[in-house]
Design brief:
The chain is mostly helical. The chain has helices spanning about 5-30, 35-55, 60-75, 85-105, 110-115, 125-155, 155-160, 165-190, 195, 200-205, 210-235, 240-265.
């Protein structure tokens, strides 16, 4: 399997993406903002298809679209929280724009399938370089934000009293989520971003681990799911995103079962 160059690139890409998705997803679930990755992925779809239409890299368009969406969501703050109708309309509009852009793109069928469900086997060395740069940047930003972000998440009133700017912290975090979402879509596709961004983190959080251990385990579990998905896809010819989604559900159910046993004991 690893004798093929495209598989080597796929494993490297999966590692680079998953090691960021796990920790960022941990904060995302802890803050109750899981809708953000889903919303940003739809906005990124419009950006990616627009980039294709202009002859640019889909990753460039997706990163730009998700960054703009993350910034706007951060500026809106709590005003958009819980407004399902508004969020639904924005997601529908983003998908509609993506469909419009694909309508004018000559290779719409293949491009749309790759964007919606991922095409990790089609990642090139140039895209891998961009993923490496974005991953390193994301981890550096997360390392810088982690302590005040955790403080602002668990005790927002006390954090604000201690000088933490909750609005700025929320904006910076959502922009980090935007970049991570754009990366994750390269592996799972836009429709299945939850499988790598949310599922591993949700399973780890069910175990009640302390923050550092939780962040580390989220990263390890996300990498495990991504690599196992590649291996299973190789031997079964089923999509990688299917296996990642299946394992995400299995690990979450397992974590829930383990905690129920522990509580009864």
């Amino acid at each position: 399997m690893l004798h093929y160059e495209f598989m080597q690139i796929a494993f490297l890409a999966a590692f680079l993406v998953a090691m960021v998705c796990g920790p960022v997803g941990w904060f995302l679930v802890l803050r109750g903002q899981t809708f953000a990755s889903h919303a940003l992925s739809h906005v990124g779809f419009a950006g990616a298809t627009g980039a294709l239409l202009l002859g640019l890299s889909p990753l460039t368009g997706m990163a730009g679209g998700t960054l703009a969406g993350g910034l706007l969501m951060g500026l809106a703050g709590e005003r958009i929280a819980g407004r399902d109708v508004v969020i639904g309309l924005v997601l529908s509009l983003a998908l509609g724009l993506g469909a419009l852009f694909l309508h004018f793109f000559t290779h719409a069928a293949g491009a749309s399938a790759a964007l919606l469900f991922g095409d990790i086997f089609g990642v090139s060395w140039s895209v891998l370089t961009w993923l490496a740069a974005l991953s390193m940047l994301s981890l550096a930003v997360l390392g810088f934000l982690s302590r005040p972000l955790l403080f602002a998440t668990l005790q927002p009133e006390l954090a604000e009293a201690r000088g933490v700017n909750l609005r700025v912290m929320g904006i910076l975090f959502l922009m980090l989520v935007a970049i991570t979402t754009a990366e994750c879509a390269q592996v799972t596709g836009i429709l299945l971003v939850f499988t790598l961004m949310v599922a591993p983190a949700a399973a780890v959080l069910r175990l009640g681990l302390p923050p550092f251990a939780g962040l580390l385990c989220s990263a390890l579990l996300a990498v495990t799911e991504a690599w196992a998905g590649l291996v299973l896809s190789w031997y079964t010819n089923a999509p990688v995103s299917f296996w990642i989604a299946l394992m995400g559900g299995v690990f979450f159910v397992t974590a829930e079962a383990v905690m129920r046993v522990v509580r009864r004991a």
